Structures are given as C-alpha cells and as structure tokens.
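Handout, page 2. Input:
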Amino acid sequence: MAQRKLKKVLITGANGFIGNKLMTHYQAQGIPVVGVDLSGNGEDIFQGDIGQPETISQLLQDCDVVVHTAALVSNSIADADMWRVNVLATRNLIAAAEKHKVRRFVQISSIVAYGNSAEGELDEEQPVHADGGSYVLTKLASEHAVLAATANSPMELVIIRPGDVYGPGSRPWVILPIEAINKGQFMLPAKGQGFFRPIFISDLIRGIALAVSTKEAAGEIFNLSCEGYMTTAEFFSHHYQWMNKRGPLKVSTGLAMFAASAATKLAQMTGGVNEASTATIVQLCTKSWFSIAKAERVLGWKPEVSFEDGMQQSKQWAQAQGLIK
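Output:
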C-alpha cells in the first residue's frame, strides 16, 4: 500500500466532531492543514461558506487534498436546508477543488446510505436505498455528486461511510442520550434489538487519514465500522451505568413511533427541536452491519480501540464536561 506525501490538506466542517479531530491529527503529524467552517477560530480554522466557493477560494491555494466533513447531521432540520448544505455545497466544493487542481477529494458520507430496510452484512457493492428521511436522502445525493464527478474529473475521489461514530464530543451517541436519560425521555424501539455498529472516533480518524494518503484508495468507497454489531440495548445500557440508573427502557416500535411523532409536534408548537424523530426511531430498528474487509485489504485498516476502552474514554469526557457525575 503506497503512501503519498501530502503537501497541504483542507478540511471542511473543521469545528465539527470529526473535522476538528482530523485537524488535530494532521497537526500532530506536522502536515500543513487548514480548516474552514461557518465560524473561524482566528488561527487555523477560517470562516467560510462552502456553498459559496468564492469565499474559500484562497484556502484552496496549494492544497492537494480536500476532506469534506461538513454536513448537517440531524433528523429535525428542514429538507431545503439539508439539501443546500449536504448536496449543493458538495457539488460546489467539488467544482472549486477541480478549478484549483486539487489531487484528491475525500467525501465523508455515512452508513445510512445503505438505507434502513437492508439486512445482514453489507459490503461496498451493496445497492444503496433511498428509504429514509432527509438526512439519508441528502447523504445519498451527495455521494451521487461525488460519483458523477469521477466520470470526467482529473481528481481522485474517495467516499468514506463511517459507522455509528462515538467517543468524547459525540453529540448523537454521547451527549443527546445523556440529556434524554436525565429528562426521563429515552426509550429504544424494537425492544432494544436493533443493530448498532459503533466506531470510536480515533479509529475513524486513522481510517480517513489512510484513505487520504493511500494511492490505491483512489476512486473507491470504504466502510469504516466495527467488526460485526451489537444491539442498541447493549450500547445504550452503558450510559445508564454511567449515571447509576436502571435502563434502557425497551418498547415496541409502534409505541416509540407514536411518542416520537407526538414529541415532534410538541416541539413544532413550542419552537423547539426534537432529534428523537420518527426517522431516528427507524434508524434504531435497522438489522444490518457492515463488512470492513475492503478497508483492511486496501488501506491496511482495522479498528484498534476496544469498545470497553472507547466507552470508558467517553464516560471520562462526559464527567469532565459535567454531563454526568
């Protein structure tokens, strides 16, 4: 597996969970890296809107790699906003990167691209399914934008489909569950028997870095996940243990859908936000897991952080943040 030396890396969504960790990774390696997000930090992350490429044109100067992590990750945001950020901005960024002769463009997608109805072990040859909410649909459409560009673009394009990314700072799998448990509003559909495919953040960052630098990764799609799966009940039981509470509450899918629908309507009436939408419930009922054989073969990548260690690090971070005692 030939590794290329990097000249300069641009990371979009550099203030986000994945983007910020990737910035730190490259800085630790001594590799020139610059970040862009809607708000900058006055140092290495600059303010810019990837939906308006002219605002980041200068940042693309001398970059040979773009890692596109910026996205709206939510089941409660308006469809138009999801489309503008997750799809149109991706198309614009690809065009801008081509203009500046970027060598490789790495798109951070998601395992949700496989859809919610697929079952069993899925590899990268498995057809995708547009059977989810706006997050699923826009992730699919952004992948299509990347794949369409491969037909006539001189750039090397790579797509990464991460599993359920957890660890210190994870909003969907650490912060929000703790908040919901504290409010007595957390429940699992399908009696907690849906499949969860966790990947610790540092393992994902290592996989992305390999996809950036490995010559043979050009033009490929990679699943980055754990080996196999666990049930949602097994995963979220740890949050209850952290908080010395009994749980999780495991209910029928029908009851969970009813509760999610009611919570969404209440949020709309009061101007609030409900992330535990019906789309979230459907995702927690999935019965699929993901082959990582291709990533192992092409990138030389396998998860290294054990689940126990990853959850311990997550717990310690949550304690340090005052989320739990």
